Amino acid sequence: MKPLYTVAQIRAIEHAVSATLEPGALMQRAGHAAANVALALLAGLANRSVLLLAGPGNNGGDALEAAANLAHASAGVDVAVIHLPGTQATSPETAAALAHAAESQVRFLGELPDLEPGLVIDGLFGIGLARALDGPARALVEAVNALGWPVLSLDVPSGLDADSGAVVGPDGVAIHAARTLTFIGDKPGLHTFEGVDHAGAVQVDALAIADAHFPPAQAQLNEPALFARCVKRRLHNSHKGSFGDVAIVGGAHGMAGAPTLSARGALFAGAGRVLVAALDPGPAFDSVQPEIMFRSAADFAIGEGTLVIGPGMGGSALAMELLAKALAGDAALVIDADALNLIAASVDLRERVAGRSAPTVLTPHPLEAARLLGVTVAEVQRDRLGCARALAASLQSIVVLKGAGSVIADVDGAAVVNATGNPGLATAGTGDVLAGICGSLLAQGWPAREAALGAVWIHGAAADRLVEQGTGPIGMVAGELPAAARSVLNELVAASAVRPNGRPQS
C-alpha cells in the first residue's frame, strides 16, 4: 500500500511524535534527509553549489538544517541561503536551525546569484500555507521558475496545497520542482491536479517515525497490487465466451469514432466478443479491427452482460431511451461521456443510477463531474478527491474522475489517486478507450472497483509506454493506446503469481 495522508493527519502525527522527542528532533532529521538527497543529486555534477530558499516557518527551519549539514559535509559543496524572516516570531526550533546555519560556512545572500547553482532547495513554505504567496516570497518563486533552475522542494512545493494539488489562491504561484522530498507521509496534492506539474518526482522520508503513529490513510496511490487478485493467466481450455461480451452503446450521427475507439479498447484488453450498438447506421464494420461487430442501437436488446454506454451517444430521445433501459437492466455498466450529461440533467436518471444493484462505474472528466454535482469546474478541480467521493456516495457507484492524477472513489469514501499517464492523453478519444478497457475487465469478471483501478492504471501506463518508445506525448492519438494497453496487461499477467485457478504459483 502507498498511503496518502491529509495535512490534518500529518499535523496530528507530528504533534504526537514531537511530544516524545527532544525539541527540534524532527526538524534535524528532515535537514539530514534533505542534505543526503541533495548530495545524491549533486553527485557527478561539476557545479556543486546549492542555493537554499528558507522561509520563516518550520519548512524554512528544515532548509536551514539542510544548509548547515551541507556546509559541514566534506564534499566540496558551496552553500548559500536566502532567508526570508517573516513578520512574526519564529518557533524555537526554527531559530535554532538558523543559528546552526549561521555558525557554519553557509553564505547568506540578499538576492538571487548571477550564476546558476547546481541545485536550488525550496524551503519557503510547507503544508501550512493558507494564502497565495506575495511579496518577496512570490518574487523569488517567480524568478526561480523563470530561470528554470533545478529545484528540490522540501515537503511540498511552496505555494501548493498538499491536500488538493491546487496552487493556493485564485492568482497564486507555486514553485516548479524537479523533485519533492516530502516528510512523514505522502500527500495527495503531490499527485493530482496542478501538483503533478509542480512536484516532479516524489520521494518520501518518514523521518524514522514508527508505523504505530500512522492512522489509517484516507487515500492511497494506485498500483497493480490493488487489483493483482484479478490478474490471472488464462487456461488453454477456454474459448471466446470465457472472457465475456462487451457492447458499446453510442455513435450518434457524426460521432462513430467514439464507440469504435471504445470497442478497440475493450477488444485489446481481452474481451471475448465486442459489439457496437450504434445510434446512427454508420459503418457496417471497422476496417482496422473487423473483429468488432456492429448493430443498430434501435434494434439492440439491452440485457445482461457488460455495457459501455455514452461514447458519442448525443442527447437524442433514442439516447435517453437506451440509457433508461440500461439503467433498469442487470448489465454491468460503464457510463461515460454523453450518458453522464443526460444523467446530470435528470433527477429520475440519477435515482436510477443510485438504485442499481449491478456493477456501475462512472468515468466523468471535470466538466461532466461539475454538471453532475451542480458546481463549477474550478470547484471540482480544487477538491478532486472530495468531489469524486461525493459523486460516488450520491450515485452509489464507482467513480473515476479523470484528469492529471485521476481519482477513483468508492461508495464507502475510499479514494485512490492514479500516477500513471502523461500529457499525451489530453487528446480526443482517450477517454473512450479508457471506458472500453474498463468494460472489458468487467466482462472478464473483475469486480467494479478493481476494474476501475486496473483500467485507469493500464490506460496511463500504456500512454507512458508510447512515450518511452518515442510516440508522443505531442501527437499521441487515442487509436495508438489499445495495442499499448494490451502489452501492459500481458506483462502484468506474465509477472502475476496467480494461476488461472486462483492458487499461487509455486
Report on the structure:
This protein has helices at residues 7-18, 25-42, 58-72, 92-103, 135-147, 195-199, 257-268, 317-328, 338-344, 347-354, 366-373, 377-381, 384-395, 430-443, 448-468, 481-495; strands spanning 3-4, 49-54, 78-83, 107-109, 119-123, 151-154, 179-183, 201-205, 219-221, 245-250, 273-278, 293-296, 306-309, 332-335, 360-362, 398-401, 407-409, 415-417. With 506 residues, it is of the alpha/beta class. The protein folds into 2 domains: 3-217, YjeF N-terminal domain (Rossmann fold); 241-495, UDP-N-acetylmuramoyl-L-alanine:D-glutamate ligase. The strands form 2 sheets. The protein has an 11-stranded mixed β-sheet, with helices on both faces. Strands 4-3-2-5-6-7-8 form a 7-stranded parallel β-sheet, with helices on one face. The mean pLDDT is 96.
Helices and strands, with pairings:
Layout: E1 3-4, H1 7-18, H2 25-42, E2 49-54, H3 58-72, E3 78-83, H4 92-103, E4 107-109, E5 119-123, H5 135-147, E6 151-154, E7 179-183, H6 195-199, E8 201-205, E9 219-221, E10 245-250, H7 257-268, E11 273-278, E12 293-296, E13 306-309, H8 317-328, E14 332-335, H9 338-344, H10 347-354, E15 360-362, H11 366-373, H12 377-381, H13 384-395, E16 398-401, E17 407-409, E18 415-417, H14 430-443, H15 448-468, H16 481-495
Parallel strand pairs: 2-3, 2-5, 3-4, 5-6, 6-7, 7-8, 9-18, 10-11, 10-13, 11-12, 13-14, 14-15, 15-16
Antiparallel strand pairs: 1-9, 16-17, 17-18
Helix pairs in contact: 2-3, 3-4, 7-14, 7-16, 9-11, 14-15, 15-16
Keywords: ATP-binding, Isomerase, Lyase, Metal-binding, Multifunctional enzyme, NAD, NADP, Nucleotide-binding, Potassium
Subunit structure: Homotetramer.
Domain YjeF N-terminal: 10-215
